[in-house]
Amino acid sequence: MRPPWAAVAAVCAVVLGVPVLVHGLVAAPENVTVQCSDHKPRVFWNYSSRVPTEFTVQFRGSGEHPSENKTVDHELDLRDLVWRSQKQMLDYMFIYITAGQRSNQSTRSPSFSYNKYKTADVKCSLMFPRGNLSVDGSGATLTLKNPLHIYKELEVIEGSCLDITVVIKNYY
Predict the structure, then answer these.
(1) Could you tell me the pTM of the whole model?
(2) Domain of 36: which CATH number?
(3) Which of 32, 44, 104, 154 is surrounded by the fewest CB atoms within 10 Å?
């Protein structure tokens, strides 16, 4: 049962526009999504209540201790968590999100990994910066900047763990 003050707080927040953080029993977040198609992984979720709520975001990998962050937003930047070590970024990762402090209902994200050999719901990838193609009489040269030297988040990664695929398409 919701505490009686929760209803008053909800009315104040919705009708009067007064920001009130509700820490009572609340519903779990929905539609948790992980976006990791670059070096800035993020998690997003929906929440049905219009009352401002504090969320606990628990980050878990298969090899390290869970870490927790608190936010009132419906998203969280995961860079500091994913890129803390090479082992972590190549691991199997997932998120639990809980609304309110006393809720025992959390929502689990899809699993994700930057390691293409891990079985995960979401396969993360790193995009290379644009390359430079130069053509001369003897052939063509494609020059790419190494993303490990561009993005500070990737300093923990050794180059030997990366697979690089170059796709050349012929357009006539």
Answers:
(1) 0.70
(2) 2.60.40.10
(3) 104
